[in-house]
Amino acid sequence: MGCTVCNNLQPDEEMPYRSTSLEALQSSFKDGCPQCTFILDASTHLKLFSPSTSTSTSNSNGENPNSIFISLQPSSTDFTIMWTTADKETKYIQIYTPLGHPPAWPGISQGLQLSPSPDSDEAFAFVKAQLQECDDNHPTCKIVGPKPPTRLIDVNFSSESIRLVETAFLPPATKSEVPYIALSYCWGTSKTVTTVSSNYRAHKEQGFLISSLPQTLQDAIAVTRRLNQRYLWIDALCIIQDDLSDWEVESAQMATVYRNAYLTIAAGTAASSDEGFLQGRKHAAGEPGNQVYQALWPLTHEEGEEGGEMNVKTATKLAARILPYFIHAPIHPSSMSQNPLPLDTRGWTLQERALSTRLLRFSTHELSWSCLSVPWECECGHKEYPSPSILSLRSLSAISSWTSTTEPDPADPYRDKQTQVMHLWQSWDAIVTEYNSRKLTQYLDKLPAVSGMAKVFEELTGSSDGEYIAPSWSWASLGRRVSIKMHNEMLYPDARRFVPRAEVVDVEAVTVGKNPLGRVRDGWVSMKGLLKKGVLVVKEEKPELPVETRYSVVFEGLKSVEVRVCPDTLLEEFEVVDKDGSKKRAVRRAREGTKEGEKVSGSEVYLFLLGNFMTINPRKVQSISLDFLVLGLSPRKGKTGVYERMGYGYTEPLFTVQIEDYVDLVDQELVTIV
Q1: Positive or negative CA dihedral for 586, 444, 450, 523?
Q2: pTM score
Q3: What SS3 class is residue 31?
Q4: CA 634, CA 575: separation in Å to the nearest integer?
Q5: Which of 124, 392, 427, 625 is the most buried (most CB within 10 A)?
């Protein structure tokens, strides 16, 4: 029977995560569990607690000060312990067999020694090994005859300079197969060398000195050369930055540029182009002697020699080391976003990471690798868990083949086209949520910076042009993190059902420039359904309440019923021109920098019914709630008689019964939302 505390560090499908304590580990140690003994010895060496700590030690609240969480995921060969010390500091400990030694038991990960710096021979040995493995054994990752970008940088022009080349003029034999490396990085606020109309010809003919470039670009050139590649793509140099037409055409090709690159370099640690990413010692290499613990571990008789006392022939090594907190958090993947690298805070870099066929990431602690066949792997051998949206996008190649199949797979009834398209839209919702939490230097880049991913989704879902626009009902109209409510019948097929009670009649967007998925100047949706006038009520006396409990709408003539409201932003009053030309007070999204006014409560708003959300509880009792768009008259010039979204609303089941007769669909009308 396995140890009830650590399961002898074997994968456990029923209990993949185990919460325990220092007291339990010490008790198991006394009972003779070798794995618990190793965990205690390693934790002492790594100074997670003092060996003199009493098993009965507790804080003033009667709680054990050392919280321990063990990950035993069946899908992983990594055994990770999350140890929260008495000082409330959380450490992640990886247990592994050092590379070059027989595995301590079948399936345990073999850990590499971390390279001392990002430009060391050990670091590039890791990179070259990953590239070789991918070239030889990953057919999904092979890029056959890709169309190269319009321009590339020839890093072999001379030892001290590089040159911009137009791929259309490369020799035919070269043009058909042009492997290149792409750079994903933060521009930052520092001035950087760019290609503009005035120096475009010189960059092609005379080239330019590497020393004139900011450090991040110099480092990218150094990596390209060390990997024996000739061509490099950097947006600042390969796009004519002061030519709006060229910028729009090239930015629309971002998905292709990163998908077709032989490798994408992600300069994760550099907040600006002049910082670089190859300098300095990596923190995870640790101080000698106190970051890694090793001990002899007996092999089974099948792996070692029969009988006898433990010796070097019948033993291997088992090791433990502290891993970087914000990179290695398989127990709680959301913690990856708690301490993001500079690269992970920028809007443009999301699609660069998501769309790359192969990605080499330079982080504070170590190098990591991902490709279409390997979700994420790093120097230490630990399997990293990227965010759900990234994981979904990195699997688009596989999803593409599913969505092209019209007949369901008999072995998998959920693997039909309609179901997979729904999964894609759920992935898009997750991507939008993450993207809107990132920053853009130019707010006008809101849509261009995500157009590459939009193009991929457009291809896979068969969406028509103009699906991703930015009127008030679009996620892109908000400059903050968004949360998308989706009625997922697949997850609860017997318990939940959404009945639509509105119809989309027309959708339109007017784009600016040549990128059909880029900037827009106008957009609207016309919907047919029930529109009811109501009064906005704000509980000003309780600002500490969640927004959905502070805001509500009551109907004229039915004030006993409340529709709870989740506003998209703070709201403010303004003067608007109605359909008949008269001026009236209305409510709109508050402009940036303004505060919510007291007069908002009591203002006139409109509720547009989207549909019924039906739920059946375990006792088979059915309840119905209604979902609404909360609208206000549009304040935009030239847009009289149309509406803008301010949020969404819903009824509690108790109120739904009272409201059903009031929302009879006989009085449907055509509503335009801009």
Answers
A1: positive
A2: 0.64
A3: coil
A4: 10
A5: 427
Tokens of 199: 């120096």
Report the C-alpha gap between 234 and 59 in whole angstroms.
55
Do residues 378 and 368 touch, judged by C-beta distance below 8 A? yes
pLDDT tens per residue, range 411-467: 444 455 556 666 677 778 778 888 888 888 777 788 888 887 887 777 666 554 434
Q: Which residues contact 407 (CB under 8 A, 6 or more apart)?
A: 416
Residue with tokens 């209305």: 586
CA distance linking residue 280 with residue 143, whole number of Å:
34
The burial of 504, by beta-carbon neighbours within 10 Å (0-12 exposed, 13-18 middle, 19 or more buried), is given as exposed
Measured at the CA of 429, the angle between CA 423 and CA 430, to 5 degrees, comes to 90
Q: Is the pLDDT higher at 531 or at 58?
A: 531
Identify how many contiguous H helices and E strands the chain contains and give both numbers.
16, 27
Phi and psi (nearest 5°) for 70? -110, 130
3-state SS, residue 232: strand
Give the 3-state DSSP-derived string for 493-553, with helices as H, strands as E and coil as C.
Answer: CCCEEEEECCEEEEEEEEECCCCCCCCEEEEEEEEEEEEEEEEEEECCCCCCCCHHHHEEE
pLDDT of 217-259, one tens digit each? 999 999 999 999 999 999 999 999 999 889 888 887 887 898 8
636-to-569, 601, 674 alpha-carbon distances in Å: 17, 22, 9
Amino acid found at 98: P
All residues at 6 or more sequence positions from 463 whose CB lies less than 8 Å from its CB, including other chains: 457
List the one residue out of 588, 593, 604 whose CA is nearest residue 553. 604
